[in-house]
Specification:
The structure is a homodimer of 209-residue chains.
Chain A lengths: L3 E5 L4 H12 L4 E5 L10 H6 L8 E4 L2 E4 L1 H12 L7 H31 L5 H21 L13 H6 L17 H11 L7 H4 L7
Helix pairs in contact in A: 1-3, 4-5
């Protein structure tokens, strides 16, 4: 049995944030499949025993279960001593970007991808609304990365691993990502790190079982 | 001059989260008006000198400026030693709820209130979409508060002050808050704490200037 077990599914960029951090930190970990698309996270038993928020990922370590990707990434940084910043000011900066990620950057993009590229549901007006929010959030990060190799400057942190979570998926969203060259270059820098893998190569999927 | 200065505006529940934490922690603080409704946060000068994310609140303390409500609340808990939890496990639990708040709880509700109750804009399909998300997030918290006086149990923490941020506003949203009795009782418990005030009594508004 591995030291860490991550309950996850391949389509989830939020799960990928945790998987990527485990991999880039050199942790001994294994993936356990959560059948989100089959409704597992909406069941009473999942909400009672795994996560009352009905979400994945869930990280199991030393008999404890930790939920919410931002908490998992902070926990891993604490355990491994890697990618978590070294001063109070850096840790605040990491938290700032992770909150922004959950609030606006990943949040709208992941929902848009789900509706347009996977579930093929939702009203076109909703897609348009989400696309507008995505472009606003992407614009802020594009500008920030003009002068920074990573979100905090020269070195990657868990803020990057959180924010890049949905970047390597190719499902349709109607957002032209070619118009964000700094974001694309940043994602390539992360993909060049030792241990990096594509989400579909790291985590099980319903289609592949 | 007060020890803390909070750049804020009354209509913002995200600003209120910080104002409320300052007040309940007994801090010496003052409010400085940000003219969000007049476009101040969208200006280049605001983004350059105050917050590149173009958001309020911004907290000024000892010559430093701190942004993002969740970072400000964590910073204040660190400074005052109040409401921040006392173990690693409690701090993780606080972070978990603050991330959920930014991702789903405040996030959708604040956007819905903005579109429906203040700006009177947006497509009805977008309102319907947001209302569905709000009901999902509210349902999770309603259930959690059935057995807990506050989010972490018997004692209030900054997770509560973050999550309650939009509760005391009365602008229309189309969500019937009467159907969430546990959330209402929890908000009343917070409003009974010494130092509590309504957001419109704590922070300047454009209309009141």
């Amino acid at each position: 049995m591995s030291e860490y077990r991550l309950y996850c599914f391949g389509e989830s960029g939020n799960c990928y944030k945790a998987a990527l951090t485990l991999a880039l930190s050199g942790c001994d970990w294994e993936a356990a499949f959560v059948d989100y698309l089959g409704g597992e996270t909406r069941s009473d038993s999942y909400r009672q025993s795994m996560n009352e928020l009905g979400e994945a990922p869930v990280l199991e370590h030393k008999g404890e279960r930790i939920t919410q990707s931002g908490v998992i990434l902070s926990y891993l940084a604490g355990q491994t001593g890697k990618f978590g910043g070294s001063t109070d000011s850096e840790r605040r900066e990491i938290l700032r970007w992770m909150l922004f990620d959950n609030h606006k950057f990943t949040s709208y993009y992941a929902t848009l991808r789900w509706l347009v590229g996977i579930d093929r549901s939702g009203d076109p007006e909703v897609h348009k609304f989400l696309r507008g929010r995505v472009l606003g959030a992407f614009g802020i990060v594009e500008k920030h990365l003009r002068d920074n190799a990573f979100m905090l400057g020269e070195e990657p942190t868990i803020a990057d691993f959180s924010m890049v979570g949905y970047h390597y998926y190719d499902e349709e969203t109607g957002v032209d990502r070619g118009t964000f060259p700094n974001i694309n270059a940043w994602a390539k820098r992360i993909a060049a790190m030792p241990g990096w893998q594509h989400p579909y190569d790291m985590m099980p999927r319903r289609a592949s079982l």
